[in-house]
Each structure stands twice: as structure tokens, then as C-alpha cells.
Write a structure and sequence with these properties.
Layout: H1 3-8, E1 26-27, E2 34-35, E3 40-44, E4 47-50, H2 51-194, H3 199-203, H4 208-213
Antiparallel strand pairs: 1-2, 3-4
Keywords: Coiled coil
Protein name: FYVE-type domain-containing protein
Length: about 220
């Protein structure tokens, strides 16, 4: 329906309600059609907008708002996606760092455990050596005590032997002196015998020890 038709229309373009004799209805500013009072909205002085155009305007505005919101949401979604991608990247980097740290800590723990095992083995070996050295020391100390006792006994025996040797040497010297004395007496007896006395008379005056010492070549001088 064109404008002339709208202007000459005696009925509402929407509900087909007839206008009064003096009324032409209200003309929509957008579609130029006439509508009854029920289907128009006054938006200004003698400016009307039909419900159809109003709805279309609302739809258009709504579409605009929706598209604006969609664009905004898309932009926000893009920003969020970029931010999430950045966070995910940082997360993966952190995970890599954490895994690297975990591997390092695991290596260090293994090194510490190996070091503890080595130290324990060294400690056990040192304990064995210490125990062995202690036993050897005790044995050596016992041997040393025995040797000290034995050495003391040896020294005492040596002292006793030296005393005996000195006694024997003293006795030997005494015997030599006695023999020398007896020899002198024997010479005196011989001189006396040569001077005319009989050997048997002088020999009988001597002690048994002197008689044995004056025994010449196993022969008793009294037989001569």
C-alpha cells in the first residue's frame, strides 16, 4: 500500500478498525501508514510511530545491542583466550621448571643417599679397623706386659748369675791365693825337708785339704 493509499485509508492498517468521519487516524512517521490510537505511539508533537515500526526499531536496536554485545564478548573471549594461552604457557613453563627442580632434587637425594651409604661403609670399615687395632693393641700390651715380666725375671736371673759369678770369681781368687799360699808353704816344707827333716813328719802336720793340694801327680808324699 502506497502513501496515498495510507492517507486515504479509513481503517487502521493493523487491526482494520474504521476511523471516525472526522478522523484519518494517526500516520506513522516511518511507514506513513495510518493506525488507530491503539497501535501508534506518540514520540513527539504530532509525531507518531506505529507499533510495527516501533517493534522493528526495538528489534533493530536489540540486534545492534546484541551484535555489540557479541562483538564485545568476542573481543573479551579473544582477550581471555589470549590470557588463558599466556597462563597456560606460563603454567607449562612452571611445570617444566618444577620437573627440572624435581629431577635435580631427585639427583641430589640419590647423591646424598649414595654418599650416606659410602660414609656408612667407610664408618663400618673404620670400626672394623679400630676394633682390629684395639685387639692388636691389647695383644701387644699383653705381650709387652709378659715381656716386661720376663725381662724383669731375666734381669733378676742375670743379677743372680752375676752375683754367683762374682762369688765364684771371688772364690777362685781366694783359691788361687790359697794355692799360692800353700805353694809357698810347700816350698818351705821342701826346704825344710831338704835341710834334713822327713817329709812324712811334716806332711802329717797338715790338714786334709793341704794334704790333697800337696799331692804331687797323684802320689802321696808320705810314700817318698
Amino acid at each position: 500500500m502506497d502513501n496515498d493509499e495510507g492517507q486515504n485509508s479509513k481503517k487502521c492498517s493493523l487491526c482494520k478498525k474504521s476511523f471516525g468521519l472526522m478522523s484519518k487516524g494517526k500516520e506513522c512517521k516511518d511507514c506513513k501508514k495510518h493506525f488507530c490510537n491503539d497501535h501508534v505511539t506518540c514520540i513527539g508533537e504530532k509525531i507518531f510511530l506505529c507499533i510495527i515500526c516501533e517493534m522493528e526499531g526495538i528489534k533493530s536496536q536489540t540486534r545492534t545491542v546484541i551484535w555489540d554485545d557479541i562483538e564485545r564478548i568476542n573481543n573479551e573471549t579473544k582477550e581471555i583466550s589470549e590470557e588463558l594461552a599466556k597462563i597456560e604457557k606460563e603454567k607449562q613453563e612452571k611445570i617444566c621448571e618444577i620437573e627440572k627442580i624435581e629431577r635435580f632434587l631427585l639427583e641430589q637425594r640419590n647423591l646424598i643417599e649414595d654418599s650416606e651409604k659410602n660414609l656408612q661403609n667407610e664408618l663400618d670399615e673404620l670400626k672394623k679397623k679400630t676394633e682390629k687395632a684395639r685387639k692388636a693393641f691389647e695383644e701387644a700390651n699383653n705381650i709387652l706386659e709378659i715381656n716386661n715380666t720376663t725381662e724383669k725375671e731375666y734381669l733378676e736371673q742375670i743379677e743372680e748369675l752375676q752375683d754367683k759369678i762374682l762369688q765364684i770369681e771371688g772364690q777362685t781368687i781366694s783359691e788361687k791365693e790359697r794355692k799360692q799360699q800353700y805353694g809357698l808353704e810347700y816350698e818351705n816344707f821342701n826346704r825344710k825337708i831338704r835341710s834334713g827333716l822327713k817329709k812324712g813328719q811334716l806332711f802329717n802336720l797338715l790338714c786334709e785339704r793341704c794334704k790333697k793340694l800337696l799331692n804331687i801327680d797323684g802320689e802321696d808324699i808320705t810314700t817318698k
